[in-house]
Amino acid sequence: MGEVSFETSAYAKIILHAAKYPHCAVNGVLLADGTKVRDSAKTQDLDIVDTVPLFHHSHYLSPMAEVALTQIDTVAQADNRVIAGYYAACENFRDNTVEKCPGQKIAEKIVENFPSAVFIVVDNKKVMQHLETPAIKIHKYCDGKWKLIDTNKLLFQTPYVLETVSHLLQSGVQRDLVDFDNYLDDLSQDWTNLGIEKVVASINASNTVDCKEKDY
C-alpha cells in the first residue's frame, strides 16, 4: 500500500460534512490527481486533491448514487482527476468501523474500477478535537475485505491542516457545506463547494505569510 496524501480542502470537506450532520451517517468520494495514478495498479501513492460530499439521508437509494457518481466522474475527467476512494462517517457516535458505515456498495464499485482505491472512515470522537491527530482511518481493499492500514501512510500536502480545519469548525463553516442531498433539493447549490476551497486557500496563504514573517 502506497502513501495517501491529502490537500487541505479535501480533508476539510470530509470533516465539515461529518460535523454538519452529527446526527446522521454521511458519505462521499475522494478525487485523486489523474496525472499521478495508474488505473490498473493495486499499490501506488495517492494524492487526494478533492472530496465530494454525497449524502446524509439517501445512502441506500441506488438511482441517486448513480446520478451523483456519473455527474462527479464527468466533472472529474474534465479536470484530469479520478474517483479514487470513498469516505463515510457512521450515525452512531461510537461506531468507527467499515462494517458500520453506510453505502459500502459504492466503495466496492469504486474499487472495481480503481483497484488502489481507499476507504476512509471518520473517527467521530476526534472530529471536534482536531488539533491533536487526524480524525480519519484509512482502509485498503485486500482479499475481499477492507483492511486498516498504518497511520504513517497518511500525509498532508500542506502544513497547518489540523489547525485550519479546527478554525473552520470553530467558525461554523460546516453550515455552508453542500452535499448531493442538498443539491438535489435545490439545484442552484454548488456541490463542488468552491466557496469552502477559497476559504481554505485564504487561510493557507495567511499561514504562509505568518511563517515568513516569523522566519520559520
TrEMBL record:
GO CC, any one term: EMC complex
Domain of life: Eukaryota
InterPro entries reported for this sequence: EMC8/9, MPN
Domain MPN: 4-145
Transmembrane segments: none
CDD domains per UniProt: MPN_UPF0172
Family: Belongs to the EMC8/EMC9 family.
PANTHER family: ER MEMBRANE PROTEIN COMPLEX, ER MEMBRANE PROTEIN COMPLEX SUBUNIT 8_9 HOMOLOG
Name of the featured protein: (apollo) hypothetical protein
Organism: Parnassius apollo
